[in-house]
Amino acid sequence: MATPVQPTVLNTHISDNFGELLEPGLRKIFFETYGEVPEQFSKIFKINTSKMATETDFGMGAFGDWEERESELDQVAYDKLTKGVERTYTHSAFTKGFMIGRELYDDEQYRQINKFPAAMARAGRAFVEREAASVLVGGFANTDGFDSNYLFANDHSLLDSSDTGDNLATGVLNDANLKLALQQMRETVDEAGNLITMTPNLLIVPPALEYTAKELVNSTLTTASLLNNINSMKGALQVVVYDYIGTASGGSDTAWYVMDSSMHELNYFWRTKPEFKWAEDFDTFVAKYRGYMRFSYGYSDWRGIVGSTGE
Fold first, then answer.
1. Which residues pair with 240 in a beta bridge?
2. Angle 37-137-190 (CA atoms, 0-180°, nearest 5)?
């Protein structure tokens, strides 16, 4: 004799809607992990918020010398600014996710599941830093600049002058080369070849040059000298150690950079900051969690930063 089918009793156990119940805790872990250490790229880039698909900067020339008025009947010497090349930032979207099955939740609960959002958050954080750092890392051999030149070059063309601009320093990071780079930045010119007032205040280095940089700008006496000369650069620059420009992250352990933080045009646009959401499949009992972000980055001008490969 067949056994009658028993009526289904709705199970009110906590694991019935495990995806929804897990979401608040996993969201908290994701954002706490993502922000567990201070950002590095925001110390270098100008951080902007965008509400459009792209952002565009327009390059403009510069006025040349004023002309002497030789007669009371002379008219004003009107001039116009030369139109330069547009600098367009196109936002790209990036995602990453993980799935949690019902059995994994029932058997492991938070012992293993907590590791998923933490790992995803750390990967996203490192990705953002590495992408931003690529502007500096590739600045000596990337021709994607608005003037069809490297970011760091000694022959930047000028719109309203036959002269050229120079923001390529040379040599290893030492006292003499750093002083030359500071002078080089003070001699930066605009599109008409006129001097621009630059005040370098940041020295950006990879971890391998951290202590060399700090000795150069913090020591009372000049480093590597037996003359006991006073260090004229003491306190003039803030050292920013950027982990993601070093060899360990695909960069260089010898390259270094000097920047005027108020005048540079390295830009980072957030279209959508990192978000964390979830959905649950009805038939498979699999809960899906994903992260999403959208941003762009680059530079609108070579002025405001000087770089050396350190070779």
1. 204
2. 110
* Calpha distance 170→248 (Å, rounded): 23
Which alpha helices (H) appear in 187-294, and where do they start and end? Answer: 210-218
Partners of 305 in the β-ladder: 259
Residue ranges of the chain with per-residue pLDDT less than 70: 1-18, 20-21, 108-111, 143-144, 222-228
In a domain, 306, yes or no: no
Residue 74 lies in a domain: no
| Gap between the Cα atoms of 189 and 254, Å rounded | 27
Output the pLDDT for position 103: 80
- Asked if 224 and 287 touch (Cβ cutoff 8 Å), the reply is no
Domain range for 252 is 19-55+85-300
Domain count, the chain: 1
Radius of gyration from C-alpha coordinates of the chain: 28
Q: Residue 122 domain-assigned?
A: yes
Q: Which helix (H) or strand (E) holds 113?
A: helix 110-113
For residue 15, the model assigns a pLDDT of: 43
Contact 158, 60 (CB under 8 A): no
Tokens representing 159 are 């719109």
CATH code for the domain in which residue 144 is found: 3.90.1690
Amino acid at site 54? T
User: Which residue, chain included where needed, has tokens 């063309």?
Assistant: 157
